[in-house]
Amino acid sequence: MTITAVIIILSVLSVSLTVCFLDARYNLKLVAWMNGEVTNPFMQASFSEKVSAKKRDDTEMAALKARIAALETIVTEPAYELNQKLNRL
Length: 89
Description:
Number of strands: 0
Strand content: under 5%
Shape: elongated
Helix content: over 70%
């Protein structure tokens, strides 16, 4: 084997290892893209998936805010404070 063949083999090996590492680390799907699959390796989620995830997060955040408000009203009402004082006695 000549030096040129060794350099080519090592170059292909290093590129393939780098691509496999990036796939495993960042889930870019580069190997699938290089094998001819019709997926975009750089697009993590579609726009509609991002919108639905944002809506789900917004509804969850609103529910959590409502729960916090309910807890604040319970804790700040005078009867709760009086019960705490009576329990301490």
